[in-house]
Amino acid sequence: MKRFTRAIGGPLGAILLLVVLMSLAMIVAGTSPIDGFTALFGGALGGVNQIGETLVATSALLFPALGIALAFRGGLFNIGAEGQLLMGALFAGAAGAQLNVPGPIGIVALLLLGALGGGFWGAIAGWMKARFGANEIIATLMLNFVAAYVALDLVSGPWRGPLATGAETAWLDPRYWLPTILPHTRLSLGIVVALAIAVALHWVFTRSVFGYDLRAAGEAPEAARRSGINIERLTWISLTLSGAIAGVGGASIVAGELHRFNTQLSPGYGFTAIAVALVGDLQPLWICVAAFGFGILESGGLAMQASAQVPKDAIHVIEGLIILVLAARRYVSTRTEAATS
Amino acid sequence: MATALTLESVTKAFPGIVAVNAVSLQLNAGEIHALVGENGAGKSTLAAIAAGELRPDEGTVSASGPVGLVHQHFELVGRLRVWQNVLLGREPRRGWRIDVATARTRVAELARSNGLDVDPDAFVDTLPIGIQQRVELLRELDRNPSVLLLDEPTAALAPAEIAAFFATIVKLAQRGTAIMIVTHKLQEVIDYASRVTVMRHGRIVERIDAKASSVEAIARAMVGGELPAVAERAAIERRPLLQIRALCAGEYERTVDGLDLDVQSGEIVGIAGVEGNGQTTLADAISGALDYRGTIEPALAKGIIPQDRHKEALVMNWSLVDNAILGRQHGAARRGVTIDRKRAASDAAWIVENFDVRATSLQAPIRTLSGGNQQKLVVGRALIDKPPFVLAYNPTRGIDVGAAALVQSRLMEARNRGAAVLLISFELDEILALADRIFVMYRGAIVGTFDRAAADRSEIGRLMAGAR
Questions:
Q1: Which whole-number Å values give the CA distances from A226 to A69, A193, B239, B389, in the listed order?
Q2: Which residues of chain B have a CB within 8 Å of the CB of A223?
Q3: Which residues of B fall within a CB distance of 8 Å from A224?
Q4: What sign for the dihedral angle of Cα A298, A302, A308, A313?
Q5: How far apart, in Å, are the Cα atoms of A153 and each of A66, A87, A122?
Q6: Do B316 and A339 touch (CB under 8 A)?
Q7: Is B328 helix (H, G, I), strand (E, B) or coil?
Q8: DSSP string spanning B412-437?
Q9: How far apart are CA A155 and CA A164, in angstroms?
Q10: Rg of chain A (C-alpha set)
C-alpha cells in the first residue's frame, strides 16, 4: 500500500494513472482507448494544421496560467483569470476598432490595452482584499460574472460593430493583426509573447526582490510581514499583475486569431488555466510544458469527437481527473511529510 | 508500593528518527516522577505513548487505571465555559439533553475537592493561563486517573502559581495518583520529584534519585557531558540609546499601557515577567509589527529575534540561503531590483560558520534542521549586520542546552561590542544570568527595576505575580 501511494506521488505514476483513467473514460463513452488516443493525438499533432491549432490553444491557456501562477505564488487564489482575460480582450477589441496609428505601434498598443483591461479587473479584487479584507477567491470568482455581463452588455449595444451579426465588436484593421508565425495555420506571434512572459516571470520569481517578497508572502505571510514587506501593497500589485497577464492573453486572442472581440471568445480558458498552473507546479517554465499538454487535450478533443465519437465533454472529464490526481498527489506528499515531522 | 504504569521496552519510530528506543519505565502509585531531557530527546513522544495517544511500534504499555495527559499547549475550547470543557464528551445527560445543573455541580465539587479554585461558568478564553491549566487538570481529574502525566506544566506560570500548582500535585500524589512531570525546570525536579528519569536521543540514559542529586548533576546527565560555558561579561561604557516613552499598544485590547523603558548601548536589559503580561505587544511594537501610541526613539537599525521562529522568522520551505536574507532583502541583500544572490550565499555561509548551524547543505530547506539550528540561523541573521540595537524575545525557548549557550554567548558578545540588547524572556534564570539591568513587567507596565548586583530572585518573583 505504501509503495502504491508513493508511486502515485511520482510524476510518472501520475501520468500513468491519468492514461488509465482516460482509457476508462473512453470505454465508458463507448470507444476503444486505442481508437480514442489515436484520434486524440492525431487530431492534436497529426499535421501542420493540427499542430498549429494545438499551439493556438497552448497560447490561449498559457497567458492566464502564468497570471494565475503569479497570484498563487503570492498566496492569492485568483480564480478570476477568465474575467480578466475577457476584460483584456474587450479593451483590445473595442479600442482596436477605433485605432489609427502605424501597424506595429497599434499591435503593441492592443497588447497593452489588454494588460490594462485585465489589470484593471484584477486590481478591483486586489483593492477589495487589501482595503476591506474581502476574500479574493470570492471576489475574483464573482468578478468573472460581472465581466461576462458587462462585456455582453457593451458589445450588444454601444460597442457593437456596425456590421456584426452577434454580440461582437467591429473587425480590427488587418494592420493590427498579430502576424502568423506558422504558414497556413492560425498560430500568431501571441505564443512568442506568452513564452517571453514565462521567461520574464521565471526571472522575477528567482532573481528579483519583488519575486522574493511575493514568494515569502505566499509561503509565510507573518514572517513576510515582519521582514518589512507591505502585504496590502503586495496584494493589490500582484492581483493587478496577475490580471494584466491574463488580459494580454485576451488581447492576443483578439489580435491574433479572432480579429474582433466576441463574447464567446473563451471556452473557459481562464478556468482550465488553473489546472495548467497547478500541473506546472506554479513554475513558469513547467507551466509552458503543461499548457502544451492541455493544448493537446483541447485541440485533440475536437478531433476525437469527430473521428472516434468520443464526446468533447470527455475532455472535460479528463481535465477534472487531472485536478483530482493532482490533489491526491499533494495529499499523499503532505501526509508523508506530516508523518515525518 | 503498587505499580500504576509499566512501559516495557517501548519503541516508536518516525520516518528518519527513532523517537523512543527500547524504553522501560515503571511509575508507582503516589510518587512524583520527573522525566527530563533536551528537546528532541523523546520525552513528549514517550508521554503520548504512555497516555495511549500514540501506539508504540514495539513494546507494551499497561496501567492500573485511566491515564491522564495534560499537554504543554492546552487543548481547550476557548469559547466554551469551564464546565463544558471539563466534561467535554462525558456530559451527564437527561434524555437527549445535557443535564446542566448536574454538570455544573459536578465540576464545582471536583474543583473544591482538589483545591483548584475556578468558576465553572467562566468562558475559558477569558481566563489567565494559570487558571486555564486548572481547567485542563480538572478535565483529566474528572476521569479519576490512576496516572497523571504533565507535559511542561509550569512553563507559562508565575512563581506563585507554580507553588500553588505543586501543592495540588503533591496532594494528588498523597491520595495515590502516580504523577509524571515532563519538564526542563530542574529546580522544580529537585524540589518536588522523588525519582528522575533522564532521556537522550530516545533512550533512557540515567535514573536518578532526586533527593540525593543536584540541578547540576541532572543537567550534566541531560547533555551527556559538561555544560557549555557562556561568554564573559566585559566592562564597557554605557550610553543612552533607545528611549521608549508612554507606550500604549495592543492588538485587540491595550496590553501595553503607559510603558517607559530606556536601553543603553553596552548593556543587556532583561524584561522579566509571566507570559501574557504584554511582552508580545511590547516586542511587536518595537519590531514595527504593531501600531502603537507613544514614542520609541530614535529610529535605529534593529536586529530582531522573534519569539516564534516558525511563524515569524523563517520560511520553512526555503533554503538556508533564502532565509539568511529575510528581512534584509530591501537593504543589505538588495542590488537594484534584484536579490544579491552572491551576498545571500556568502552571508548564509558566514552565519553557518560563526553560529555553528549544522545543516547538510546551504540549499537544504530550513525545515529539515533541528529547532536549535534553526534558531541559530535566526540569531545569526539578526546580528550579521552588527545592529546597534538587538531585541531577543525568548531566544532560547525550546532549543537544546548547547544551542542555548551559543545564543546567549552571541547576545553577550553583541553587548560587549557596544550594542543595546533588550532580552524579553519568560525564564527568570536566563534573565538573571544575562541581564545588566532587570525590569519586571506586569499587566503591560514596568513595576520594578533592579541592577544586576542588587537583583533579588524572590523579590522579582513577587513583582512578577503582581505584588506591590
A1: 24, 36, 28, 17
A2: 311-315, 326
A3: 315
A4: positive
A5: 29, 13, 20
A6: no
A7: coil
A8: HHHHHTT-EEEEEES-HHHHHHH-SE
A9: 10
A10: 21
**At B353, which helix (H) or strand (E)?**
helix B341-354
DSSP 3-state of A180: strand
> Which residue from B minimizes the CA distance to A227?
B327
Asked whether the beta carbons of residue A210 and residue B14 sit closer than 8 angstroms, the reply is no
Q: What nine digits make up the cell of A6?
A: 508513493
Q: What is the pTM of this model?
A: 0.82
Residues of A in contact with B337 (CB under 8 A): 208-210
Q: What is the pLDDT along chain A (341 residues), one digit of tens a residue?
A: 445 555 445 567 767 877 888 888 788 878 888 888 888 889 899 889 999 999 999 999 999 999 999 999 999 999 999 999 999 999 999 998 888 888 899 999 999 999 999 999 999 999 999 999 999 999 999 999 999 999 999 998 888 888 777 888 888 889 999 999 988 899 999 999 999 999 999 999 999 999 999 999 999 999 999 999 999 999 999 999 999 999 999 999 999 999 999 999 998 999 999 989 988 889 999 999 999 999 998 888 888 888 777 777 777 777 787 777 777 766 665 555 444 43
Structural domain harbouring A16: 2-340
Name the amino acid, one letter, at A51: I
Alpha carbon separation from A228 to A274, B79, B424 (Å, rounded):
30, 34, 22
CB-nearest to B330 from A209, A219, A220 is A209
Q: Tell me how far apart the alpha carbons of residues A37 and A16 are, in angstroms, rounded to a whole number.
A: 14
User: Which residue is listed with cell 511542561?
Assistant: B152
Separation CA B329–CA A236 (nearest Å): 20
3-class SS of residue A146: helix
B288, closest residue in chain A (CA to CA): A226
The ipTM, to two decimals, is: 0.84
Q: Nine-digit cell at A257?
A: 486569431
What residues in B contact A339, CB-CB < 8 Å? 14-15
Which of B289, B318, B334 has its CB closest to that of A226?
B289
The residues of B whose Cβ lies within 8 A of any Cβ of A are: 14-16, 287-289, 304, 306, 311-318, 322, 326-327, 329-330, 334, 337-339, 341, 367
A4 CA to chain B: closest CA distance, Å?
17
Please judge whether B329 and A227 are an interchain contact, meaning their C-beta atoms are less than 8 angstroms apart: yes
Interatomic CA distance for residues B142 and B172, integer angstroms: 13
C-beta separation of B310 from B354 below 8 A: no
Q: What is the number of structural domains in chain A?
A: 1
C-alpha cell at B147: 496516572
Q: Give the CATH number for residue A86.
A: 1.10.3470
Determine which of B39, B290, B291, B339 to mutate to test the interface with A (most A C-beta atoms within 10 Å): B339
